[in-house]
Amino acid sequence: MSDVLDHIPGFGDLRVDDAQVSAFEMARSELAGALDIPLEEIELGAVVRLDRGFPMIATRCGGMLRAEHAVDFAKGKPGKRGKRSKRAAAEVASSAGVDGMLPSVGDVVAVRVTPGHDMGVILRVLPRRTSFERWRGKNRGERQVLAANIDVIFIVQPLGAERDTLPLMRDRVARSLVLARDCGADPVVVLTKADRCDPAEVADACDALRRLAGAGVHVIATSARTGEGLDEVRACIPRGSVGMILGESGAGKSTLLNTLLGTDALDTNAVRERDDAGRHTTVARIMVALPEPCGVIADCPGLRSLPLVGHERGLARSFPEIVEASRACRFNDCTHLHEPGCAVREGVDCGEIDQTRLDAFLALAREMRVSAQSLDPDIHL
Fold first, then answer.
1. Which of 239, 271, 299 is the last residue of a domain?
2. Pairing mode, if any, of strands 152-158 and 186-192?
3. CATH code of the domain in which 190 resides
4. What string of DSSP letters covers 214-230?
């Protein structure tokens, strides 16, 4: 067994695009002037671990350091437990709070590294290429960024559990697809614990989820015990790309990641026998670099629910054939259930649209309409 910190990626393992480098150079000059600090003390870095303590930053110059967390100072509040320095408070209050973006794992940041100090200070979060967010409040706009600058999202679901019926699994996968597409990342469905089922059951589950996910989405059955499907997963995360594992506690996320790493670096817990549910094993959001020729994966705590609020873009990207067909419906407010002249129903009848995908689309669209109306009663959808 190894320590997970032995597998933390360096800055060179992550993909930082030209736009982010340009944004850093502009921010660097601006911050140096506004804060009256030397240019050479402001470095380009990436957040590779985020927990209840201080974010861990990999810097372009090759260093690895902890940094003062910007959350309290961006809101003008004193640091928790008195641990934040006055220096960090002044710097963060004057810069990191400008755009309201607080650092998440995967973020590219401008960080001050001062000689003689053992910690840095995150001065600014640079523009994100992608941002995986989840709804976390009752009021519009309350979202939590789980990971930033992600290219691939591995949607992990376990096989062989009595509680995980196929309809329930389809619902979870459909929700995850919408969130991944809304983020702008490529989804990959990974079914774990395939060794708990007979081959026919595995094949049926894969076929059902392929119909749901649609063309272009990989559905891979894996087993950490036998090694089944792991090479297919590795092929989806080539060097230079960054992935994220998404799934409930007990789905086998940490076990899958340990197997890909080739060592037990992440803690795992046994699931409860009565319902196959797991406890939150992962408490930090942390990135690990997989062995060559693979890229980097972010491991996040398991999510019990995935509410969809304001993810219409992700819905449209997940079901493009339905959205395209709906433009030819006779009525603008067609529900695609019983109206005459419904081009979507015609697509189903002629085999161009899969009924499974339409059922999922309608259910998720209905949920989003209800959510929008509950947030703003004046919305009429």
1. 299
2. parallel
3. 3.40.50.300
4. -TT-EEEE--TTT-TTH
Q: How far apart are CA 254 and CA 367, in angstroms?
A: 31
| CATH number of the domain enclosing 82 | 2.40.50.140
Which tokens is 189 given?
């469905």
Q: Which two tokens stand for residue 370?
A: 């209800």
Q: What is the pLDDT of residue 111?
A: 95
Cα angle 187, 189, 190 (rounded to 5 degrees) comes to 135
**Global confidence as pTM:** 0.84
Residues constituting the chain? 381
Q: State the chain's maximal CA–CA distance in angstroms.
A: 74
- Calpha distance 76→73 (Å, rounded): 5
pLDDT value of residue 266: 64
57-70: b or e for each residue (b if 16 or more CB lie within 10 Å)? bbbbeeebbebbbb
Q: Are residues 114 and 135 in the same domain?
A: no
Residue 9 lies in a domain: no
- Rounded-to-integer distance, Cα 362 and Cα 174, Å: 11
Q: What's the rounded Cα separation, in Å, for the pair 64 and 46?
A: 10
Strand 143-148 relative to strand 120-125, pairing: unpaired
Domain count along the chain: 3
Q: Say yes or no: 363 and 270 in one domain.
A: no
Domain assignment of residue 241, given as a range: 131-299
Q: How far apart, in whole angstroms, are the C-alpha atoms of residue 199 and residue 208?
A: 14
Q: Is residue 305 in a domain? A: no
Chain Cα centroid distance, residue 270: 24
* Local structure of residue 127 (DSSP, 8 states): P
Helix axes 355-375, 199-213, angle to 10 degrees: 60
* Nearest to 72, CA basis, from 106, 96, 99: 96
**Radius of gyration over alpha carbons of the chain, in Å?**
23
Domain boundary, last residue among 125, 146, 163: 125
Residues 361 and 284 in one domain: no
Distance CA 167, CA 140 (A): 29
In terms of domains, do 230 and 82 share one? no
Among 55-64, 247-256, 368-377, which range has the highest average pLDDT? 55-64
